[in-house]
Amino acid sequence: MSTDPGPSAPRPDPSMAPKPADADDTHGDLHDVFSALYAGAEWASDAESDDGDDGAAPEPAPEVVSARFSRAQLLRALDDLILPSPSRKRRIFPDPARLPTTTPSTAPLPPLPPASLCAPFSPLPLLARLRTFRQETYSALLPPSLGAQAAALAGWTNAGPDGLACACGARWGVGGLGAIKDARVRVEVVRRLAAGLSARHREGCGWRVAASPGALVGEMRRFAHPLVAASLAPLAQELLRRSLAGPVRPVWSCPVPVEQLDALAAALQAYGADRAEPGAVLPPLDALAAALALFGWYPYDPGFAAAADHVTPGSGTPTDIVACRICQRRVGMWAFQPRDGAAKVFDLQREHVAWCPLRADDWWRECVRLRPLGEVEREGAVDIAALLVSERPAKRWRRARGVRG
Ligand SMILES: [Zn+2]
Ligand SMILES: [Zn+2]
């Protein structure tokens, strides 16, 4: 058993194989994990916290009473956590209700949890933290290691100009870098500030134990913006009907080559035609409607702002404002009308807020529908219409873990 319950107690080395024969070792490991998770001394075992005590009699262990499982069941389940038995799979608690893995464009995003929630492996709490980073209060010019994404992955929310805050009570700021003239000094300051993303949480804060993995940003994007025809096709049709019906269209650009956008438009058109009512005529999708949908822009009517994070086919008013339902950036497309030969260009990728995953490079390459239909069919997809764009990496990980465990 470990004799030092403080925060500097040695943590179990994950690379070391467990030693099933030695029960004392396991107990020590568990103790260390508790010390690391709950900051040591307050959570030390009864035996240790009594060390140096004034000799008062130890309190009797509280009796565990539950109508749902017996003490023997609880102990067996705890044993299973340490030495899982391959022949027995039981859970003390039922599976928690799981969120859907994606939200199509026709459904609103689920309500976000509070930004203070410590849930490092969940995409929606990450989005809740990211949304606190506003362009007015958190500079988009900070280096990526201090940017909104890095800070939110480490558990921080934006509070005040270039300020960061956590529910553990820690507050600090990363402003003032622009005043440092010497480039080498600035690099070193940035390095030290970036180390603070983990170290500045208070003792006992869960974010000191586990930060969100970088891959969670992509997972959040796939959750809120699935690259499947079932989501992109209705969105593109609604953009065409509500936002692109006017005579003048915005001048626009995006990183996807136009022949790939044409392939996407054709695939989405075919998907919609397959599912339309008999006799209904869908207006032909073009590259702009397909590109706006691909880059996550939704028709936005200020009068119905609450409903602007999804489309309801066939309803909704015409509007020339589009908005991203992840970063909530709104763009009035009238600003990009060609005037006197010169015009501002609506960059479908770069108009997203700095931390928005739709602004990142190359994520759109995950969309198989950017390739000609014939090419995808040749590769053996049976039901092209229902084809998912990409296997979610998290799934592969779960499968791999299942094989090992
Ligand atoms: Zn904290
Ligand atoms: Zn966005």
Salient structural properties:
single chain; mainly alpha; three-stranded antiparallel beta sheet; 5% strand; globular; disordered N terminus; binds zinc ion; NuBaID_N; nucleus; C3HC-type domain-containing protein; NuBaID_C
Helical content, roughly? 25-40%
Head-to-tail CA distance between termini: 27 Å
Most strands sheet = 3 strands, antiparallel
Radius of gyration, in Å, reads 27 Å
Polypeptide structure, described:
It is globular and about 80 Å long. Helix content is about 35%, strand content about 5%. Helix 8 packs across helix 10 and helix 9 packs across helix 10 (about 285-295). With about 400 residues, the protein is mainly alpha-helical. Among the domains are: about 125-215, no CATH class; about 225-395, no CATH class. It has twelve helices and eight strands. Bound molecules: zinc ion (2 copies). The site of one zinc ion has 9 residues, from loops. This is C3HC-type domain-containing protein. Keywords: Nucleus. It is found in: Nucleus.
